[in-house]
Amino acid sequence: MAAAACLTFTFYRTPEQKIAHRLEEIRMTRLELSQQLEPHFLKNELVPEADMKFHGEDQKVRLTYTVDADLQKEADKLLKSYKPDYGAIVMMDAETGRILAMSSFQKGGGAEAPNLALKGTFPAASVFKIVTATAALDKYHMTPESTIQFNGGNHTLYKKNVMSTKINRWTRAITLREAFARSINTVFGRIALERLEPQDIEDYAVRFGFNKNIQSDLPFASGVTQIPKEKNFRLTEMASGFNNATMMSPVQGAMIAAAVAKDGVMQVPYIVDRVQSEDGKTIFQSEPEVAAVTMTPEGADKLRELMEATVKNGTSRTSFRSLMHNRKFRTLEVGGKTGHLTGLNPRGRVDWFVGYAIGEKEKIAVAALTVNVNYWTVKSSYLAQSMFQKHFKEVFSQENEHFFNTANAAAAAEAAAAATATRGTASAD
Fold first, then answer.
1. pLDDT band at 402 (very low <50, low <70, confident <90, very high)
2. Neighbouring-strand partners of residue 276
3. How many other CB atoms are there within 10 angstroms of residue 222's CB atom?
4. Using CA atoms in the order 123, 126, 128, 133, what is the torsion angle rounded to 10 degrees?
């Protein structure tokens, strides 16, 4: 009777239960892969074969990865060419979570250098403004044109300015779009005090992966933050990203940008596409999985306006000028956010860019990071635009090749048809 009941349950399982069961299987398999391949991933090695315990059995498996060879080569070349003290690039497919490139560089680090793309000790800096802006846009229905009054400089954060509500002759008003594009700290501190509650920032931070474990086959460190429970100066520091307590990894940076591109839906990142047994049988095929819904589509639409302003006339406009002015890439919707702050592990000036490029058929996200001890060798925003340029140059070339091949085939077919018709006419005559 017990066996029959079990069979009946399996046979009548609802579609929702089947999906949930399948996702749980994927999560458990990714956990297995992450734990057993971690020594390789931490050294940025993608081994084609491994002896491992898979689904409870010791076996030799073959591994196929999601990484695009050309994009990986480009990421490696960029970091090796510019030689920052520390650097990482992560590119992912925003629609699926597939990792397309993951590169790490440490000057003088050699083959044993850690994979910085997975390391979560980098201050998020102004990238965290994405979280604050999302809460304001998505929950409190601010718009890119909403204005905020503030005192003080563009890139400083002084308590006497941000905590004061006094209006004087030095008080300025600025739109949220411009404040985001220019990364003005005091404005985001004022937003936290005037428009949001501390719990709002914490809730949206969790949605974006902070203080939350996301099960992936990549053993990347989860982002961390400490949101004060009261409206005080520390809250303004958190909201503007002007602190060292909020940290994240480049993998999470790519996830954040991808969520904005995908209308607020954040996908679980994954790098193992398929696992095969030694005889070639597929024993695991990865599938996309939603990690979180970070915001509404309407909120994402407004946030993209802010991120587009950053690359068009904000803090990364210089790096993206050539891309934005190139006719070949004008069909792309590109946005991003920069961030700069001195970090402690590793010690140096952290430079972030997280962003996305949306084409007609795909959405691609990138996180680029450099840490420079004494001087900069390259801006992270330049590394990111180089990756976008490489990817979409190949995509557009393939599309053009397909277009011309199709056109030539059609022309050849027409010519053949015309020749056949001519021969037929001549024969009839």
1. very low
2. 62, 282
3. 16
4. 170
Integer Cα distance of 157 and 162 in angstroms: 7
**Closest among 353, 362, 355 to 391, alpha carbons compared:** 362
Contact (Cβ atoms closer than 8 angstroms) between residue 194 and residue 231:
no
Task: Say if CB 43 and CB 73 are below 8 A apart.
Answer: no
The pTM for the full model equals: 0.89
Contact by Cβ (8 Å): 201, 246: no
Tell how strand 272-277 and strand 57-65 pair up.
antiparallel
Q: Tell me, what amino acid is at 32?
A: E
Which residue in 335, 395, 394, 338 sits closest to 365, CA to CA? 335
41: which residues sit within 8 A by CB, 6+ positions away?
A: 34, 115, 118, 218, 219, 271
Q: Which residue spans within 135-201 are E strands per DSSP? A: 147-150, 172-175
Find the distance separating the first CA and the last CA of the chain, reported in whole Å.
85
Pairing of strands 122-123, 99-106: unpaired
What amino acid is encoded at 427 in this protein? Answer: S
- The pair phi, psi for residue 353, each rounded to 5°, is -145, 125
Q: Is the CB of residue 238 less than 8 Å from the CB of residue 227?
A: yes
CA 117 – CA 10 distance, rounded (Å): 41
What single-letter amino acid sits at 362?
E
CA distance 130 to 352: 13
CATH hierarchy code of domain 2-68+118-343: 3.40.710.10
The pLDDT tens digits of the residues spanning 307-354 come to 999 999 999 999 999 898 888 888 999 999 999 999 999 999 999 999
Q: What angle do CA 178, 182, 187 make, to 5 degrees?
A: 70
270, 217 Cβ separation under 8 angstroms = yes
- Over the stretch 12-23, which tens digit does the pLDDT of each residue have? 468 778 878 888
Beta-carbon count within 10 A of 53 CB:
11
| pLDDT of 416 above 90 | no
Q: Which residues neighbour 60 within 8 Å (Cβ) at sequence distance 6 or greater?
A: 49, 50, 51, 278
- CA gap 88, 74 in Å, rounded: 12
| pLDDT band of 401, cuts 50, 70, 90 | very low
**How many residues are listed for the chain in this entry?**
429
Report helix, strand or coil for 348: strand
